[in-house]
Design brief:
Blueprint lengths: L10 H13 L2 H7 L7 H10 L1 H18 L3 H12 L7 E4 L2 E4 L13 E9 L2 E8 L2 H12 L26
Antiparallel strand pairs: 1-2, 3-4
Helix pairs in contact: 1-2, 1-4, 2-3, 5-6
């Protein structure tokens, strides 16, 4: 694997790139690539800064994305499906109660927001439980991606610390 940058990768750097793609954990990739476990996080940071390694990682990630058809756009679409799912897409009401719609009657792609559907039978009758994926988490991820809804913690300013302590002694 020859990457743009400072010439070809070393064997260990190639191994690091392969291992990094497994879990995107630099420290673990460094150890698996044969670097010492001692300070592997520092070693990984140094390796990841090398232009030839950066280029090789980008090339490998782009190739994997093309192979798997997993793109940022597709991931965002899936998050949007979950974030903007509506329970009325799954249920229909009648005079006899509420029941789950047939999958064919649900809007296109609506089933992708389902985490699970289970059915149980009991003394009170049959029961269908529908669980949607976590909407709030999907919304949070979309907000983070779009740079909106940022929570900021302001640690500037003065703080008064009360150092006086009063102890009440009770005789028993």
């Amino acid at each position: 694997m020859v990457a743009k940058g400072e010439g070809p990768l070393t064997v260990r750097e190639m191994r690091f790139v392969e291992e990094y793609l497994v879990d995107l954990c630099g420290a673990a990739a460094a150890v698996r690539a044969g670097y010492s476990p001692k300070k592997s996080n520092v070693r990984a940071m140094m390796i990841l800064r090398r232009p030839r390694v950066k280029a090789a990682l980008k090339e490998a990630q782009d190739a994997r994305s093309k192979r798997t058809s997993i793109t940022a756009e597709r991931v965002l679409e899936e998050l949007a499906t979950i974030a903007f799912s509506d329970v009325t897409a799954y249920l229909e009401q009648s005079k006899t109660g509420t029941k789950l719609k047939r999958f064919e009657d649900m809007p296109a792609g609506a089933t992708r927001a389902l985490e699970g559907v289970s059915e149980s039978r009991g003394p009170q009758g049959d029961r269908v439980t529908v669980k949607l994926n976590d909407k709030q988490r999907a919304l949070d991820k979309l907000c983070a991606h779009l740079g909106i809804c940022k929570e900021q913690l302001d640690l500037s300013g003065k703080m008064k610390v009360d150092t006086e302590l009063t102890i009440k002694v009770v005789k028993v």
